Amino acid sequence: MQIDDIPDMATLRAHIDALDERLVGLLAQRHALIAQAARIKKRIGLPARIDDRVEEVVANAGRHAASRGLDRALIENIWRQLVEAAIAQEDRYLNGDRP
Q1: What global pTM score does this model have?
Q2: Nearest to residue 86, comparing CAs of 44, 50, 35?
Q3: Which of 16, 28, 82, 97 is most buried, most CB within 10 Å of its CB?
Q4: Which of 86, 64, 85, 84 is nearest to 75 (CA)?
């Protein structure tokens, strides 16, 4: 079904809800990858925050957003929050908590 073929708000909302569920699933996968990053960083002695990598991840997200016609600044802001949460997750692990 094409977006323009969605006939009513109930159907539209169902599509949005299904997409939100998929997005949460992707975020759960990202969380698992961050947990693995924390384990690797601990093993090789890297800190949770690597500023150059933070900027690279945010810039990549902004570039992908712009190429799809999205507001680059908005997506970069969202990604900064996502990255900060990931760094906090890694910090917890590196300080003795398990992710």
Answers
A1: 0.88
A2: 35
A3: 82
A4: 64
Distance between CA atoms of residues 63 and 57, nearest Å: 10
Is residue 98 pLDDT above 80, yes or no? no
Residue by residue, DSSP assigns 33-84 as HHHHHHHHHHHHT--S--HHHHHHHHHHHHHHHHHTT--HHHHHHHHHHHHH
pLDDT band at 89 (very low <50, low <70, confident <90, very high): very high
Q: For CA atoms 7, 9, 13, 14, give the dihedral sign.
A: negative
Please compute the mean of the pLDDT values over residues 31-48 and round it to a whole number.
97
Rounded to 5 degrees, φ, ψ at 47 are: -80, 165
Which tokens go with 3?
């977006």
Taking Cα atoms as reference points, which of 58, 75, 55, 57 lies closest to residue 66?
75
